[in-house]
Write the structure tokens for this entry.
Amino acid sequence: MGRRGIGRLGPGLGLGLAILIAVATVPAAADPTASFDCTKARTITEKAICKEDSLAWLDMQLNQLYTDVRQLQDEGARLALRDEQRDWVARRDACGGVSACITKLYWQRLQALAGRISKRGLTGFFEYAEKGMAGSLGLVEFPGNRAAGWIETINLGRGHMCQVDMADLRVDSQTLTWNDPEEVDGKHCRVDLTIGPGGAVVAGQNCRNWCGMAGYFEGHYQRR
């Protein structure tokens, strides 16, 4: 399920761009949710995760990836993985609710877990590299040739923004494809991503409904 409209900045996009955001040209969908009930958030870290779409998205992906990886382990390895995850949670909580710190630890943990199921190196954070634009791409690979992604970009001159939440990407070697299950004006948005050593190339078809009038997300992204 994707996301249309303009909201808070996506995973790792903390570029101080909120003041540039124009009025949305399409209605916003529901914000990403964390892996836990945000109405019961008690700790500083939990509240920080629930406050930011980016952290909520990362938390949901990590919970899913951890569950998937755990299911592939034998009993002894599962116990070791559990202890490892508990140690990671303690380090995350030591961030004291600081978004940059939490974000960094999530990406480190996601990449470590993804490395246990694949050596393709698809999981990671990418920064938009097109002139006049800023933004980010986040990718998380799962077992079974599956992945999830989030794209968020902004036109620095016009303030028009794109947000695309790709819950089910199909993986074929270093190429990922997402087809929007929702039809708009008789067409489905399709996003193709090709991942290389230094970054990603993103192409879209029939995806204008995801952006403001002067927004776009196609082009090159550099790995960070």
